[in-house]
Amino acid sequence: MNPTSDRALQTVQRFSVKHRFGLVAGIVTLMAGFAVTAVAVAPLVAEPPPLTQRLIVETIEPRGLGSQLLELSTQDITLTRSDITRATDSADGLLARLGVQDPEAASFLRSDSTARLVLTGRGGKMVQAQADASGSLQELVARFPAERAEQAQTHFTRLTMSRIGGRWLARLATVPYTTQQRLASGSIRNTLFAATDESGVPDAVASQLAEIFSTDIDFHRELRKGDTFSVVYETLMADEQPVPWNEGAGRVLAAEFVNAGHAFHAVWFKSGDGRGSYYDVDGRTKRRAFLASPMEFSRVTSGFAMRFHPLLQNWRAHLGVDYGAPTGTAVRSVGDGFVTFAGRQNGYGNVVQVQHGGDRTTLYAHLSRIDVRKGQRIEQGTRLGAVGSTGWATGPHLHFEFRVAGQHQDPLRVAKTSDTVPLDAASRPQFAETVKLVQARLEVAETLAGAPRSRAE
Ligand SMILES: [Zn+2]
Predict the structure, then answer these.
(1) Could you read off the pLDDT of 30-45 as tens digits, one per residue?
(2) pTM, 2 dp
(3) pLDDT band at 410 (very low <50, low <70, confident <90, very high)
(4) CA of 404 to the centre of ligand 1 (A)
(5) Of 207, 343, 351, 389, which residue is 20 to 30 A from 85 by alpha carbon distance?
(6) Under a CB-based contact definition with an 8 Å cutoff, are residues 31 and 6 in contact?
(7) How many whole angstroms from 216 Cα to the centroid of ligand 1?
(8) What are phi and psi of 99, to 5 degrees?
């Protein structure tokens, strides 16, 4: 084992002497086997003792080939094949790829309103077919992300198409994912996404990191070379199989981000009311009344900085902030409220205005499309429309305004200074335990950071 992971092991062993968690033992076991930047971590159960291998030698009397063939032909042979759907798949094309030749099944897949879901959308669904030796389909199971947004991180949809009493039937179920935990860490040399790529961290996890710390760090303008991160995140399994969408990324459970020498922490925790949220280690929620940005931080938007207006060079004079981003990028409400205007206004083009509590209003202009209507109640993060260049716009961008009692404000400053809610007293002891656990994991992730590089050198 290389010196770095040796050091990591010692760190954990020291820790596990101080705090006797079964979980930490799990990490030690795994770490002995892996010295990579992202490692799989055992769930919170004790490791079973390793199986010992024995070689058993037996003499088998060969039987006549004829009797063996006869036996085979009387058995039902089931072939199972798995694949991922493509946007261009037809019923026949998909079934052919799965080794199925069954016109009746193909016709059902084309015509049944539930079964057709296998083929709709952009592809990327997991499909598994069971067929007999002649290629006729016995069962088809498709697994894909749950449609309802609030379930997207916790559940998947399982579509089962099977022959019952000679007739095909398709049914849907919403099923919880099972998860595994991963540790990763890295340091910034250039951009956040370059660093997460290097550490094998999925884009969806990188975006979550930027969102979680968005009121601590402006990821467009304040990232420094040498900044570091450590993260514990979930990977998703659907019926024990790793999911292909979003690179299998689930929720970030804990993270540390060191920006310009200042360390920020986030821990995912479900408080007494069952609602999960991110907290700093002192138990203050990281969720604010207002988001730092009306667009999610993603690989697409990361390269575009918030800019002063090109004509006036000053957002106060221009009374707004421009965010460059490609046409079609989702625009979201930065806070809870209701829509006071959704439509066209000359210079603004397609524009949405939202009234929030406490005399605060926001405005989103030049949209290519509008997804809300006047009077609609919306929550923080609700999609309002998409970036465009309608009205007086030289190119695709979002023009964004934040007003308090009619006065224009710097949206990032408003987000940073908006209220945080402390954790209720009843949840504190459990929270303290959670913090201890995740800090041990983050420490491991941190120590692992240099491992692959030091090995290569
Ligand atoms: Zn503007």
Answers:
(1) 333 333 344 445 443 3
(2) 0.73
(3) confident
(4) 18
(5) 207
(6) no
(7) 25
(8) 75, 25
Task: Determine the distance separating the centroid of ligand 1 and the alpha carbon of 309, expressed in angstroms.
Answer: 6
- Residue 69 pLDDT: 61
Residue 2 has pLDDT above 60, yes or no: no
Residues 378, 400: Cα–Cα separation, whole Å: 17
State the pLDDT at residue 454.
29
Residues 390 and 347 sit within 8 Å (Cβ to Cβ) = no
**Pair 347, 392: CB distance under 8 Å:** yes
| Residues contacting residue 285 through CB under 8 Å, at least 6 positions apart | 277, 278, 279, 420, 421, 422, 423
Q: Which residue has the tokens 């929030």?
A: 356
For residue 400, report the distance from its CA to the centre of ligand 1, in Å.
7
Distance of CA 166 from the midpoint of ligand 1 (Å) = 63
- Name residue 246's amino acid: N
